[in-house]
Amino acid sequence: MALSQSALLELVEVLKTTDASELMRQMLATMLQELVDAEASAFNGALPHERTDARTTQRNGTREKIVTTGIGDVNLKIPKTRTGSFFPALLAPRRRIDVALHAVIMQAYIEGVSTRRVDDLVIAMGGTGVSKSEVSRICAQLDAEVATWRTRPLDEQPFPYVFLDATYCKARINGRVVSQAVVIATGVSADGHREVLGCQVGDSETEEFWTEFLRDLRARGLGGVQLVISDAHAGLVAAVATVLQGAAWQRCRV
Prior knowledge:
Layout: H1 5-16, H2 20-44, E1 59-69, E2 72-81, H3 96-110, H4 115-124, H5 132-139, H6 141-150, E3 161-173, E4 176-188, E5 194-202, H7 207-219, E6 227-230, H8 234-243, E7 248-251
Parallel strand pairs: 3-6, 6-7
Antiparallel strand pairs: 1-2, 3-4, 4-5
Helix pairs in contact: 7-8
């Protein structure tokens, strides 16, 4: 699909006032958008607003897609369709180096490395650096994986022994750094296999918070608990008695 005259003139004006790197990024964005639109037309069987018997579906707006390239991020508009699902084959596969780079950024994020240090790391690996917003966008992919892990079923095997504990960490909430309680449950199966069953973050270690956490474990299928080991926090002990009825409780002295 060719650019209109107004679009070409607008592009010329942009190119006149940009530096060399921005010029290359703008040209790449224009080329990629043209290729995406052409592929969408082939998928639909017709150009936008074209009447033809070969048409199989119609466009239904666009969605934004940020594509990371060697000369910076490029914003593209991916056409949506009324029926079926379209995604340009040009953007589907990421190069192996991109996959590896994203994995490094995610691991650094998990380890608590600052954004500035991540930027230095990317440059050392031959990249062009990475912004704070780009780190957030890449690491957002972790959210789905974490959510899947936190909601996974626990009914595949019983856990006779369950250790419960909590620690406090600093977290930024609504622009303020505050202390948050992080509770964690570790199960031990009959054959000695240890597995982290779940974790949750809250304002403090109240009985209500522990009760909600344990009920979530039970709802996910935790069963066969015979002994719970924890400290003697009153709210925790009360929550164990309420949710894990029939299980013995032992104070951890380590």
